[in-house]
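User: Fold this one for me? It's Translation machinery-associated protein 7.
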Amino acid sequence: MSGREGGKKKPLKQPKKSNKDMDEDEIAFKQKQKEDQKKLDEMKGKAAQKGPLTGGGIKKSGKK
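Assistant: Here's what I get for Translation machinery-associated protein 7.
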């Protein structure tokens, strides 16, 4: 038995599944996810413009 034969055998690669067999519900779900992601990105952009929300809390002096 040579050194190359030892170890775990790799399984044969499976062919990729085609995404052509999606029904209307899956297509609608994907479209809704894209729209939600766009809205989330817009909200992130607006939040970044306004600056941090903190600043009114208790401030620590840093001294001990």
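One thing worth pointing out: The mean pLDDT is 77.
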